[in-house]
Amino acid sequence: MRPDELLTSFVYREDQVVRKTKKIHHSRLIPRRNQCKNGRLETSVCRSNELTEAQVSLICSRHFDVHAPKPAIGRGVGPASAVFAEELSFDADGIPYPEHANIIGWHDDPGKPVNELKHFWMDKAQRIAAKFLYKPRVQG
Fold it and tell me: What would the 3-class secondary structure string for the chain be?
């Protein structure tokens, strides 16, 4: 992944957008434990640099909306450099679609519950989210 590559994080609730700054809320970038990958902490994103709005919308419909409590209302778009600046990296696994990637490298201590680890992730997620401009979903 190049530092100037654009990433997308889909949002499905109004409170996942900071209206004052027009950026996404950091909660969209907090990692989750992937039990299929040895419990690795990761944040799912879409590599959207070369995609049209129609292509992004199709990915959202097929791969986000079907798993989210509600369809996406928009997305945050930001540079990979924001992730690299936090000393995190990517696993561009292309699963379940070719443009899929995971932000990896989050602090972890398998002996501690998630609630005790969240403060390690929050600062990084806040700084990354500050670079992710909110774009409402284009209906069509």
Answer: CCCCCEEEEEECCHHHEECCCCEECHHHHCCEEEHHHCCEEEEEEEECCCCCHHHHHHHHHHHHCCCCCCCCCEEEEEEHHHHHCCCCEEECCCCCCCCEEEEECCCCCCCCCHHHHHHHHHHHHHHHHCCCEEEECCCC
Which amino acid makes up residue 27? S
pLDDT tens digits along 28-64: 999 998 888 778 999 999 999 999 999 999 999 999 9
Distance of CA 114 to the CA centre of its chain: 18
